[in-house]
Design goal:
The complex is a heterodimer of chains A (123) and B (958). Chain A is of the alpha+beta class. Chain A is built from four helices and nine strands. In chain A, strands 1-2-3-9-8-5 form a six-stranded antiparallel beta sheet. Chain A has a three-stranded antiparallel beta sheet with strand order 4-6-7. Chain A is globular and about 35 Å long. By secondary structure, chain B is α/β, with parallel strands linked by helices. Chain B is 37% helix and 11% strand. The chains are: A alpha+beta (123), B alpha/beta (958).
């Protein structure tokens, strides 16, 4: 259910690490809780974000959730498809990336959960 | 008791639903020997009023209406040419009779249950389209409270859009004075620096994020703003323009000049000035900024059958979802008046509106020419309907007011001696004669000298003339005969559930009777025709109504002074918090910036606190749903000298009279904070307890809840605040008219007494019921809620109650237990209730997954029992799913609401009968309400935003 090619945050984001870069999206659990996603607000390329900081929001019809950044870095890319097709977050959450970061401190990954750890945290 | 004629027709028996025998049956069901015993069990003894209310005795409808007629006769209806955003107009009789005077249009609630609100949703969409077309913008909302607060909202919006570029906001000196005052009052707590600067010469420096312009301006000048706007944009500054819809029928719209946001009010589209209101303001903007727009927005979507359906779109911007991060605190707006303005546009169509505009402009040109022959100088190089007349000398200017007074005319008096004259739709050639005669008398000139010929050209250049078409959608072409218009209004009305259909048990909305007698004065000329800025001696009738109403509200709240200015509950919250802020400021305690707000509070509370420049600290609720007193004490102590106020609703939004309320208020006061009470639940207080007794320093009252002003489909509302004596010096002032306390906070509304004309409704309600009747209403409100609890708690879990099981005037049923066993949630129950002919209770506030029920005192026992029958039947339908007798997906609830089209279709594939779907109980058969659409796809609507009238092909008629 939760692929082991990546790490997970307790705020229900997944993080794929590669070199000094991270690709970030939200998990199956998160999209289920949200319901039908209608809008995703993402930061501009070039913005610096700290771990734990809000980097965007994700809206369903009845709720707005903040997206908390799992690691610190600089935003290098933002998924532009999400403005026209926000629903892919629901249908393919683990294949839908939101932002990529150039990492400031790759060792922060140690604070993230692995697949089994995240699955267990969902209880 | 009253006179013998009154004794046979006391209004209280018309207002209260249950009859004496019904009351006894209900008391038996709840297990109380009498109403008094029930009240003793419900309201803590420590907060009971020691004495009955001291109010005049109740009177019959006839007596009250007669008295109001005599009071209204003290208003003097001069002809007013003051302008400044308020103009005489003609309400088409077909709209007056079928909309404003029609309970089918004024009793419904805000259209959250869209499937049973398609009529007024379409009407609001017409309004949005009217605004979009006339202003030349991309999207518009479904109304704001007035032009001045709309301008303030525009300022806040531009700040969000510009993402904190700077803190300075420029306001043109040519904006209406009340607009400038309200905007200044809203800017300060947000940390914006407001500068009044002439846009044509202003420097748009890096720290400026936006500018507000007025077009046509305060003098009536219609200057092309294209260059100014371009200059602002070149400097990275965003532009808001306040404008006039009628002017835009002949003048170039701000949207074509590059404006980013356009605001104004639609009052002159068939809604009387009403001595300040109500009327619908508007805000329009570009597509890119739609998510930053405040207020409700109606959008088009589809239902489960793929048919076009309207809904409230992008609700995630609003306070009920985003709370302190909302785009605005606005909740109740001005829907009824927006509908009227939209219908005015539908009825006249683009040709009719343009004809009104051109005729009006021509009259203004004639007047200019005639006055110029007296040697006057008209200052506006270009104008629409408003002239600014220079009389020649200050001595001559000083004579004009007397001449005007003698002729019963009101003009706009400028400080430099100039006279403003704003003509309007009602102006005739005879009116021009009277104006000319008055000026002639003042200037010692013979009116004959002025002549009476018609001018050749228009008084505005081609550059500023409107070239573009507007209102091209067929709806603005096809309802121009009265028969067509009447039928259109009726067809729309039939799609909506209002109080004229059935009970609307929305928790915290208090959907009680809006007495017809109380609605009569609103449409009297003596009440409706007055311009808000006429000299107060012309409004002696209103002054008496204000004084008596304020006195009654002081009596009811136990507090000492009232401001009638805030024109909604949320507006009252903001006003009350600003009053508290001013109080702390004057005591040298500016550091008090923290507002404690329970997690169960209505979304407007945190949203208002943010707008008042406060920091929101949430106080937890305990397992019983009450404010966690330990958490409150801890947070009050933690913030200590930084504590500004506590905002509390009482009884709580959970429907409980919390025992600890006095202790809570004392704790806040001990730390130097003030207590703000949200008056949404006053229907459980009046006559039995009061805000003063529980310890509040200030409260707002929702006149459109407890005090019988109709909900109008989402407004109008009124939210006056009552304050203790120590806060009275800080009540809002107004620059043009009305209260002028030296320490008063800036105005919170465009008009000094808010939407003054509808105050007559609450006035009449209070007078007709009197002290006894008002207290009885409260008792019955509590009885009906406890009755529903007794009948329904065997079937649904009640979420919160007092330890002895009593609830206040509302209660919450928990539907969450059904979710896991059956997949049914509160939305499914809400939609299935439509099949039974009922509007759902409040779903998902204050607790998600629940429904909050408030029957009110007006519902007869028969209706309460029908509602119970419906819910009990639905409970059975849910049980069938749990037991495996009904399918988890294809069932009566998931497929609700069932339309007539679905039920009569040749193909019926559901595992239950059509009869079970549409006529689930015998009583439904007798009074069936058919939803016009099936369940609406909300996600589709928010993903594919369409916020103006969709093309006719999309309506799916075949």
């Amino acid at each position: 259910m939760y692929p082991d090619d990546r790490k997970y945050s307790k705020d229900h984001e997944w993080v794929k690490l590669s070199g000094g870069e991270a690709t970030i999206g939200i998990t199956q659990y998160a999209q289920e809780q949200l319901g039908d996603v209608v809008y995703v607000e993402l930061p501009e390329v070039g913005r610096a974000v700290k771990r734990g900081e809000i980097f965007g929001t994700i809206e369903s019809v009845k709720a707005v959730s903040e997206l908390f950044c799992p690691m610190s870095g600089e935003v290098t890319a933002v998924n532009a498809d999400l403005s026209d097709y926000p629903e892919v977050v629901n249908s393919k959450p683990h294949d839908t990336w939101m932002i990529t970061l150039k990492l400031g401190d790759p060792s922060e990954a140690e604070g993230l959960l692995d697949s089994a750890g995240y699955q267990a945290s969902l209880g | 008791m009253g006179t013998s004629s009154d004794a046979t027709d006391r209004f209280v028996r018309r207002h209260i639903g249950p009859r004496p025998a019904d009351r006894d049956r209900m008391l038996e069901a709840v297990g109380a020997e009498s109403l008094d015993v029930l009240i003793d069990q419900t309201i803590p003894k420590s907060i009971r009023l020691p004495r009955p209310l001291e109010l005049p005795e109740g009177e019959s409808e006839q007596t009250c209406v007669d008295r109001l007629r005599r009071i209204a006769a003290k208003n003097r209806c001069y002809r007013s040419y003051i302008g400044m955003g308020y103009y005489g107009c003609i309400t088409p009789a077909v709209i007056l009779r079928n909309v404003l005077e029609n309970p089918s249009w004024y009793t419904p609630y805000t259209p959250y249950q869209a499937e049973i609100a398609q009529g007024r949703l379409e009407a609001l969409l017409n309004f949005q389209t009217t605004v979009i077309d006339l202003t030349g913008m991309d999207v518009a909302n479904a109304s704001l409270l007035d032009e001045a607060t709309a301008a303030a909202e525009a300022m806040a919006m531009l700040s969000r859009v510009s993402r904190g570029r700077g803190r300075r906001f420029l306001v043109s000196p040519h904006c209406f004075p009340q607009t400038r005052a309200v905007v200044a009052g809203r800017a300060e707590p947000l940390g914006f620096e407001l500068d009044v600067a002439d846009p044509s010469t202003a420097t748009f420096s890096d720290d400026v994020f936006g500018v507000l312009l007025q077009y046509p301006d305060d003098s009536g000048a219609a200057t092309d703003l294209t260059e100014t706007i371009a200059r602002a944009h070149a400097a990275g500054v965003l532009v808001a323009v306040a404008t006039d819809l009628l002017a835009l029928t002949v003048l170039k719209p701000p949207g074509e000049m590059g404006a980013d946001v356009v605001v104004g009010n639609s009052q002159r589209f068939g809604v009387q000035p009403g001595y300040g209101g109500p009327h619908a303001a508007f805000l329009a903007t570009r597509q890119a900024h739609i998510r930053q727009m405040p207020g409700r927005v109606i959008g088009a979507s589809v239902d489960v059958h793929g048919a076009p359906a309207y809904r409230m779109a992008l609700q995630t911007r609003e306070q009920h979802i985003r709370r302190e991060k909302a785009t605005s605190n606005i909740c109740t707006a001005q829907s009824l008046l927006a509908n009227m303005a939209g219908f005015y546009a539908v009825y006249h169509g683009p040709q009719g509106l343009e004809a009104i505009g051109r005729r009006l402009h021509r009259l203004a040109c004639v007047l200019e020419r005639r006055l110029e022959r007296f040697g006057c100088e008209q200052r506006n190089a270009e104008y629409f309907d408003t002239l600014r007349i220079g009389v020649g000398s200050l001595e001559l200017a000083a004579r004009v007011p007397d001449a005007a007074e003698a002729a019963h005319l009101n003009f706009r008096w400028f400080d430099d001696g100039d006279v403003g004259i704003a003509l309007d739709e009602t102006s005739t050639e005879a009116d021009l004669d009277d104006i000319v005669a008055a000026f002639g008398k003042a200037l010692g000139r013979d009116p004959v000298e002025a002549g009476d010929d018609a001018p050749g050209e228009e008084a505005f250049s081609d550059g500023v003339a409107r070239q573009s078409a507007f209102l091209t959608h067929p709806v603005f072409q096809t309802h121009q005969s009265e028969t067509e218009m009447m039928r259109y209004l009726k067809q729309l009305e039939r799609r909506d559930i209002g109080l004229d259909t059935s009970m609307i048990p929305l928790g915290s909305c208090t959907m009680k009777l809006n007495p017809a007698a109380a609605m009569l004065p609103v449409t009297w000329p003596a009440i409706g025709d007055l311009h808000p800025f006429v000299p107060v001696d012309q409004a002696a009738g209103y002054a008496q109504i204000f004084a008596e109403l304020e006195s009654a509200l002081c009596g009811i709240t136990g507090l000492d002074a009232v401001s009638l200015q805030p024109n909604s509950g949320a507006q009252g919250e903001l006003a009350g918090l600003m009053v508290i802020r001013a109080y702390h400021h004057h005591r040298g305690e500016d550091g008090r910036r923290v507002v404690l707000i329970p997690s169960s509070a209505h979304g407007t509370n945190p949203a208002s606190a943010v707008m008042a420049g406060m920091q929101v600290v949430v106080v937890a609720c305990d397992d019983a749903g009450n404010v966690d007193v330990d958490d409150l004490r801890a947070k009050a102590a933690e913030h200590g000298a930084a504590l500004s106020a506590l905002m509390i609703t009482y009884p709580s939004t959970h429907g409980v009279f919390e025992e600890a309320i006095r202790e809570i208020c004392v704790t806040v006061h001990e730390h130097g904070g003030q207590v703000y009470m949200d008056g949404a639940n006053m229907n459980a207080q009046v006559g039995l307890t009061s805000p003063a007794v529980i310890g509040a320093d200030v409260c707002h009252l929702n006149l459109h809840k407890t005090f019988a002003v109709p909900h109008g489909g989402g407004g109008p509302g009124m939210g006056p605040i009552a304050v203790a004596a120590h806060l009275a010096p800080y009540l809002p002032r107004h620059p043009v008219a009305g209260p002028t306390m030296a320490r008063g906070i800036p105005p919170v509304a465009a008009a000094p007494w808010g939407s003054a004309s509808i105050l007559t409704i609450s006035y009449a309600y209070i007078r007709m019921l009197g002290a006894d009747g008002l207290t009885d209403a409260t008792r019955y409100a509590i009885l009906t809620a406890n009755y529903l609890k007794a009948r329904l708690e065997p079937h649904f879990e009640v979420l919160y109650a007092r330890p002895n099981g009593r609830v206040a005037h509302e209660l919450i049923f928990d539907l969450r237990p059904f979710r896991e066993a059956t997949g049914i949630d509160e939305q499914d129950v809400a939609k299935r209730l439509i099949d039974y002919g009922f509007h759902a209770p409040t779903v998902s506030f204050p607790v998600p997954g629940t429904m909050m029920v408030e029957p009110t005192e007006s519902e007869p026992l028969e209706e309460l029992d029908r509602f119970c029958e419906a819910l009990i039947a639905i409970r059975g339908e849910i049980q069938a799913i749990a037991d495996g007798h009904a399918d988890r997906q294809d069932n009566l609830l998931k497929n609700a609401p069932h339309t007539a089209a679905a039920v009569v279709s040749d193909t019926w594939s559901h595992p239950y009968s059509r009869e079970a779907a549409a006529f689930p109980r015998p009583f439904v058969r007798a009074q069936k309400f058919w939803p016009s659409v099936g369940r609406i796809d909300n996600a589709y609507g928010d993903r594919h935003l369409i916020c103006s009238c969709p093309p006719v092909e999309a309506r799916g008629e075949d």
